[in-house]
Amino acid sequence: MSLLFLLVAWSTAVLSCALLCRAAVAAAHLTPPAPRAGAQAVPAPAAAEGRGSGLTLYEMAYLSGGPHRLADVVLVLMAQKRRLLLADTGWATVVDPVGTDAVERAALTAIGPDGQRRIPAVRDALVSDDAVRQVADRLETAGLALPAAVRPGISGAVRLVRGAALVVLLSAVATYWRAAPGADSGPVLAWFAVPLILTLGTWAAARFELHPYSDWATTAGERQLPDAAGSHSAPDSPAAPAGSLVTLALRGPAALTDPTLRAALHSSGA
To answer: How far apart are CA 64 and CA 140, in angstroms?
Structure first.
C-alpha cells in the first residue's frame, strides 16, 4: 500500500510541475498574432481617460479578469451614467438607450428590445460580442494579453502545484498511518521528501518569478496595469466614488463599495 501512495505522490508532483513549466515557457515565448481582418479599435470610455498607464478602462478590465470582468465594468459604468439600472435581484434595466462607444452599444444590444434582462445573460452575451473581441484582439496584437491557445495558463498550473504538494503530504501521512506497529517507516517516508521538495520548490520559484499570476495578461501587460491600491486618485464618472471603476476593473465586483451594485453583479438573477 505504501508503494501505491508513493506512486500517487510522485506522479502528481511531476505532472503538475511539468504543466507549470510548460505554461511558463509558453507565456514567455509568445508571438503577438496578426490583427484580425476587419478589427477596429474600440474608443476608450471617458471614465478611462487620464490614467497615465496608457490603457483604457476596458483594457484594464480585460487584462485583470478577462471578458467577464470587462462586461462587469461596462455595466457598472453605464449604471453610474444613469443609462442602466442594476437591481440587487440580478436584473439590468435600460433607462437611457444611448451608448457612447461600441462596448456600451453592445451591452444595450445584449439586454435586448424588451429593455430588461438578467445580468448573467447580459454578461454572457457581451463576452461573445465583436466589440469585446476587438478589445482582446488589440491587446493580443500589442503583446499585452495572452492568446486563447495559452489559456488557461500559469495561475491554473500554480493551483495544480499547490494541490500536488497537499497530495504528497496526505500520501505521506496515509503511509505512516497504514504502517504496521513497530515497523520502521522512516526510509519510505524519506522518499516522499523528494516530491514534496519538488512541488514546494517549483511553487516558490513561480511565486518569485511569475507572480502575479494571470490567465489574461502577459508579463508586459501586467506591467501596464496600475496599482489598485493607488487607483483612488484616478478620476471617474462624476456620479461614481473616486477610483471605483478602476478598482472594479483591477479587483472585480468584490471590491465595489456600493452593496447594491455588488449584489447585482454577484446575483444569479433568479
So the answer is: 14
CA distances from 218 to 24, 42, 56, 66, 252 (A): 10, 21, 17, 12, 19
Has this prediction a pTM greater than 0.70? no
Cis peptide before 181 (omega within 30 of 0): no
- Distance between CA atoms of residues 72 and 265, nearest Å: 7
| Residue 108 near residue 99, CB atoms below 8 Å | yes
Radius of gyration of the chain (CA): 23
Helix (H), strand (E) at residue 186:
helix 186-209
Q: Strand 84-86 to strand 116-118: parallel, antiparallel, or no bridges (unpaired)? A: unpaired
Here the cell at position 216 is: 489574461
pLDDT tens-place values along the chain, 270 residues long: 677 888 888 899 999 888 888 777 766 665 444 444 444 444 444 334 434 457 899 999 999 889 999 999 999 999 999 999 999 889 999 999 988 999 999 999 999 999 999 999 999 999 999 999 999 999 988 888 877 766 556 667 888 888 999 999 998 888 877 766 665 566 777 888 889 999 998 888 877 766 555 668 877 888 888 864 444 434 333 333 435 889 899 888 888 888 888 889 886 443
- The Cα–Cα gap between 243 and 235 comes to 6
Which residue bears the cell 506512486? Answer: 7
